[in-house]
Amino acid sequence: MLNNLLLIVQVFFFLIGAYQVILSFFGWYRKKETITHKPTKSFALLVAAHNEETVVGALIENLLKMKYPRELFDIFVICDNCTDGTANIVRGYEGVYACERNNPAQRGKGFAIEWMLKELWKRPRQYDAVVMFDADNLVATDFLQYMNEDLCNGHRVIQGYLDTKNPHDSWVSAANGINYWFCNRLWQLPRYNLGLSNFLGGTGMTFETKLLKEMGWGATSLVEDLEFTVRCIQRGIKPKFNFEARVYDEKPITFRASSRQRLRWMQGHFDITRRYMLSTLWQGIRERSWVKIDAAIYIFNAYNFLIGFLLTFTLWFDLLLPGAPHFDSIYSVAPAWIAVPISLYIYAQLPLSMLLEKVNWKLYFRLITFPIFFFSWWPVTFWAFFTQNNKQWSHTEHTRVLRLEEVQGKQM
User: Fold this and answer.
1) How far is the CA of 369 from the CAs of 174, 178, 213, 343, in angstroms?
2) What single-letter DSSP state applies at residue 186?
3) Distance (Å, rounded) from C-alpha 190 to C-alpha 196?
4) pLDDT band at 392, cuts 50/70/90?
5) Which tens digits make up the pLDDT trace of 320-351?
6) Is 300 within 8 Å of 273 (Cβ atoms)?
7) Who's near 163: CB < 8 A, 6+ residues apart?
8) Peptide bond before 325: cis, by omega within 30 degrees of 0?
9) What pTM did the predictor assign?
10) Is the pLDDT reported for residue 408 higher than 50?
11) Alpha-carbon distance 411 to 153, whole Å?
């Protein structure tokens, strides 16, 4: 009885995995984005910063060099609960606005953005769109050109391509980079190619001002990007992925910092799953919308990973026990012509995505240590499940000058 129950659960999660495998095939090709519209849209560039005096100047100088008419964009740095010289550095750049916020009771980027948008709506000048970055980012100088193009073509929410600024720093930052290249190429691009919704990534995001005023921000969870994505999809709005608009994000270089960051992500993901997954799935079924059903499957990933970990642990532990019979594994009962190709392709996806993205050949050696990073998701996910109600943010400063990282890690 227990064996049959475990097998049914395995089949369910096998089908979810097979769906993602099939989806990834549509990321093998891509059509290059083109720019046909002249610059007409105006932008408010928002930079979320908490004690970022080390890195914020580099981003401001980068944004001031954008290949876009300067009169069509303004830069606003949200100096959120800062106790360092972030605001003074920002004020040193002509035409850049330092917007200081002090509210220790509401920490986190979601709260800071919500406050900044309210302040922005009060200003005499209004903008066609709002773009959001993190203080440690670097941005391709043609980023706004692609955002202008997408807005002119009717898209209301756009996510740029999230690349990694420092994949060579350590095996941890390299693993983060590999994970991002895989997600960009075999998760985001297939959904774009198939007309499904893409998902926001926390930075390099552009929003039509009219939409923000209609919806309000309202995304103050630990994963405000995913929360706003789901709210858009439920309203019938599909965020769009622009493969050419590059944003370079600096990744943690230590395992501890990376674990704390991933803990925050998974805590927030469990929260969003609990609040939005069933309603999104039901909408998709009722409206016969595969966009919403796919979104529900994506939202479910936190539990997919958690239960997959528990199943794998159970099967491995069972094999170590003496005697028989043992529990059946889906891969042992499935036909070899199905199980073997899927298994091989799952392992091949990482080098394939790196090959498609033309990643530096030296980083292929980091595939050797990537399994350590991958399997470390399991305890992080397990711990996040039991601490998902924790909403307190903390700020951890790296020893590297490249980034001051904002993470939550009270229990880690």
Assistant:
1) 9, 11, 45, 20
2) I
3) 8
4) low
5) 887 767 788 887 777 777 878 888 898 899 99
6) yes
7) 177, 180, 184, 246, 247, 248, 249
8) yes
9) 0.90
10) no
11) 45
